[in-house]
């Protein structure tokens, strides 16, 4: 009894230490701002999040109207977070950190429960908590979906371990429910049935190729799970079918939501040959960044080409490692499980099917997959040192050294998320031809009043990617505000050539035409903007102003009222409506 109590105290101490070091590594996020990479578009400027949790916003969260793929639970978490803490970026960052800590503790608890191995489980959890590759998932408020969905990933695994200990309908239902909630946070969880099959082999030993070692004993460092019942492989596969169906439904809902958005699947944005060549190379780069986390950035753009030798070499390396670990599957099963976890869970984000501005790879994509590599490393080190006389001392020194180094790296990496300026300056420094980073850095410079530098970065983005509409649009607006009509017209016209249905470009071009006195042409562009975005209050306001100038007071009033209906707090539209009423009354009195 006292032994069990001491072990429980030790596990609680490990959990407390993991939480404290994670907080220490990430605490500066409380002083970080939102960044100009979806945070403003999807969160800060999202009117539904401003309303908080209501029947209307819940319906919107579950609809296909949001500007991203279907993840209603993530939207609800943002609504609740903003409703409680307001639009304070520091608090929103800390919510992400809370989920990251919860994921770390759950990972430790699940691994310890499955394997009985305290040190290995704690080391994997420590690597997960402190590795700088995970900073993007924690520090980027918009990426709440990653840490939130992983929270349900861990709960799914925990529920599954309970189910395997004593199978029953209610326990299976808990697994099903946890997975369903996770998929509503992010469809990345579609690979969970595959991971559960891996865990069935090791460490749960519900399926065996032959008799092999089982769970690691914390006292001896050996495996012992010989009392577990071995199930037929076919039964274990059938057991996962409801979970596979759930994953298929999630994939269908995500595809359906994407089809209803402006960010349709970009089959031609990157040549298929380049995407295929990038797959093995990106796998190897993920491994490299896990082993030596340098040059981390918010976006890694596709290179113009991937040399054949790189693609073939990376493919042969991955195939060689796969063959090697599979040959050891009976003697050292953790190698195969860890490696296949990494390979399999990256498949949904490997880039063969792309949505929006898809990168060659992304740190956030590795949040769950690298757990497989951490498992491989932790149990591998333990295995190598199993016969050493001072094994525990060596493991303690190794753990302290590695985690301390990672903690420092994570602290330094988190600092780049302080502001958009810091984030994109860093991305430009450590990547080549990063058109998106140059554009976003231009916007950050513009917001700081550094106009010439902003123009330079926008032009650099266009020199890298001439068909990139956003810097054309940004330059058009910038020059329009400066009164440089000719330059503004060039860039806005280029933007409309690239994407004729771009509502904002039509709106800006309409404003340019107003400055030139071409009112009816301007009105046609405002109407086109409304056609593309029926909730575009600013476009309704501008048409109302034009109709007022044309003394079409009835039409002007109709458009201005519509603008106010869409945005009740739209001050300019209300002022224009008041001016319109005053002018129309004066004209009416003059006629009398």
Describe the structure.
It is a single chain. By secondary structure, this protein is mainly alpha-helical. The chain has 28 helices and no strands. The chain has helices spanning 2-26, 39-44, 47-51, 55-62, 72-85, 89-115, 118-130, 135-139, 144-165, 169-183, 192-201, 233-239, 241-259, 272-291, 308-327, 333-345, 369-384, 391-415, 420-430, 435-447, 451-464, 469-481, 485-498, 503-515, 519-532, 537-549, 553-566, 571-591. The radius of gyration is 28 Å and the shape is elongated. It comes from Candidatus Desulfatibia vada.
Notable features of this structure?
28 helices; 592 residues; mainly alpha; 0% strand; 3 domains; Serine Threonine Protein Phosphatase 5, Tetratricopeptide repeat
Outline:
The protein has helices spanning 2-26, 39-44, 47-51, 55-62, 72-85, 89-115, 118-130, 135-139, 144-165, 169-183, 192-201, 233-239, 241-259, 272-291, 308-327, 333-345, 369-384, 391-415, 420-430, 435-447, 451-464, 469-481, 485-498, 503-515, 519-532, 537-549, 553-566, 571-591. The protein starts with a helix and ends with a helix. With 592 residues, the protein is an all-alpha fold.
């Amino acid at each position: 009894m006292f032994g069990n109590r001491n072990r429980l105290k030790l596990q609680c101490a490990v959990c407390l230490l993991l939480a404290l070091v994670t907080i220490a590594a990430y605490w500066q996020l409380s002083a970080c701002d939102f960044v100009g990479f979806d945070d403003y578009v999807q969160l800060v400027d999202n009117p539904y999040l401003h309303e908080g949790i209501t029947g209307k916003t819940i319906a919107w969260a579950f609809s296909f109207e949001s500007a991203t793929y279907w993840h209603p639970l993530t939207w609800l978490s943002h609504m609740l977070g903003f409703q409680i803490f307001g639009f304070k970026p520091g608090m929103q960052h800390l919510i992400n950190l809370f989920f990251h800590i919860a994921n770390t503790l759950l990972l430790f608890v699940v691994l310890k429960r499955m394997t009985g191995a305290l040190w290995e489980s704690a080391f994997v959890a420590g690597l997960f908590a402190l590795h700088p590759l995970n900073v993007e998932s924690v520090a980027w408020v918009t990426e709440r979906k990653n840490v939130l969905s992983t929270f349900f990933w861990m709960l799914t695994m925990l529920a599954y371990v309970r189910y395997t200990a004593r199978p029953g309908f209610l326990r299976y239902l808990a697994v099903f429910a946890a997975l369903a909630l996770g998929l509503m946070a992010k469809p990345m969880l579609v690979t969970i049935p595959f991971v559960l099959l891996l865990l069935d082999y090791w460490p749960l030993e519900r399926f065996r190729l032959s008799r092999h070692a089982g769970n690691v004993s914390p006292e001896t460092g050996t495996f012992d799970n010989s009392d577990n019942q071995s199930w037929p492989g076919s039964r274990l596969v059938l057991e996962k079918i409801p979970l596979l169906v759930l994953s298929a439904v999630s994939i269908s809902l995500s595809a359906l939501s994407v089809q209803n958005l402006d960010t349709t699947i970009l089959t031609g944005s990157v040549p298929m040959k380049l995407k295929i060549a990038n797959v093995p190379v990106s796998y190897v780069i993920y491994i490299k960044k896990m082993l030596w986390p340098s040059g981390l950035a918010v976006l890694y753009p596709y290179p113009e080409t991937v040399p054949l030798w790189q693609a073939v070499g990376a493919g042969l390396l991955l195939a060689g490692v796969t063959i090697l670990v599979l040959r050891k599957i009976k003697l050292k099963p953790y190698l195969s499980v860890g490696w296949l976890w990494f390979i399999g869970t990256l498949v949904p984000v490997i880039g063969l099917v792309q949505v929006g501005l898809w990168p060659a790879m992304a740190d956030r994509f590795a949040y769950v997959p690298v757990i497989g590599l951490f498992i491989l490393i932790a149990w591998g080190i333990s295995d190598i040192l199993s016969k050493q006389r001072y094994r525990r001392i060596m493991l303690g020194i190794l753990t302290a050294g590695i985690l301390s180094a990672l903690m420092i790296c994570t602290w330094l990496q988190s600092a780049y998320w302080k502001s958009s300026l810091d984030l994109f300056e860093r991305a430009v420094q450590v990547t080549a031809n990063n058109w998106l980073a140059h554009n976003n850095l231009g916007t950050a410079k513009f917001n700081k009043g550094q106009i010439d530098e902003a123009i330079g970065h926008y032009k650099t983005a266009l020199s890298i990617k001439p068909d990139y509409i956003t810097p054309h649009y940004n330059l058009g607006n910038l020059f329009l505000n400066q009164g440089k009509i000719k330059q503004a017209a060039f860039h806005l016209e280029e933007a409309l050539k690239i994407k004729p249905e771009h509502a904002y470009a039509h709106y800006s071009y309409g404003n340019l035409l107003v400055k030139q006195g071409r009112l009816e042409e301007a009105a046609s562009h405002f109407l086109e903007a409304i056609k593309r975005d029926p909730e575009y209050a600013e476009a309704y306001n501008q048409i109302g102003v034009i109709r007022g100038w044309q003394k079409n007071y009835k039409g002007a009033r109709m458009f201005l009222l519509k603008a106010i209906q869409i945005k009740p707090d739209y001050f300019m539209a209300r002022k224009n409506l008041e001016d319109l009423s005053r002018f129309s009354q004066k004209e009416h009195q003059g006629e009398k």
